[in-house]
Sequence to fold (314 residues):
Amino acid sequence: MITLETTIGGRHFDNCMMNAAGIRCQTNKDLDALVASKAGAYVTKSATPHKRAGNPAPRMHELHLGSINSMGLPNNGLDYYLNYVVEDEQKRPDSTNFLSVAGTSLEDNLAMLHQVQDSNFNGFVELNLSCPNVPGKPQVGYDFDRVNTVLNEVFQFFTKPLGVKLPPYFDLVHFDQIAEILNQYPLTFVNTINSIGNGLVVDPETEKVVIKPKGGFGGIGGISVKPTALANVRGLALRLKPEISIVGTGGILNGQDAFEHILCGASMVQIGTQFGYEGTRVFDRVSQELTEIMAHKGYETIDDFRGKLKTFDD
Ligand code: RRO
Fold:
């Protein structure tokens, strides 16, 4: 009997697949559709203390090999998402879901986490340290001292399960440096990767960029980011203490992509760009495809192969 169930921080999930923050999770209607789907959990659109309209349109563009976006954190504000997840927990007390927060300053993040700490919310908080699209606000995840400061401040008072959403890193020394910081804290999970920040897509016909904000610069997602995502999942899985689970995000379109993320060390996988294109059916399809791969290989649970990627040195 093959199962796609997984465990993070002692919490059980029936399916190891879910949406990635930002994709079809901004409204109650979006979240209701995720609850009704085969996804093992959902994550809410990254929240700021107050509702935000985000950047001007066009701010997302479909690419042959993925997507570029500069949404600029459009969201309904923390109260909206906190109310949703708390009410959902009352209806489904055994489920664990993810509440994403993305303050544009340390003060905002601390204020939001105080509010979450004081609430009845019992799920996971995903602290987004990697939004690439707010003009004038660099991604915190690329400033290692700042990451350390943020986590140090947060864990002075925050006692609920917390993870961080990281930007992609591109040098093994950076994996070493970020892991050394993350390992000092009681994190429940690390989610890697957010979109590859500040790519540029050019339309040769019109000789113009394809999105309006920031002169056309935006975060790249979808199939073209998979090798970077796998490297980050693997790089962190090899360096983080075992109590910190890895959530793998980036370039998952099918069962094979999910399989590769898990092989690199992911306990949960998130589908972003492709979920945007396909809707909740993606979770049925990718679950079916992953199950078939596992059947073919004789695996019954994802723990049978999670993190067991081979190299030429084995
Ligand atoms: O809203 C966005 O522009 C956005 C966010 Br907060 C993020 O974390 N990642 C992304 O690609 N877009």
In short: The CA atoms of residues 106 and 226 lie 30 Å apart. The longest strand covers residues 124-128. The chain has one domain: 6-55+73-195+225-304.
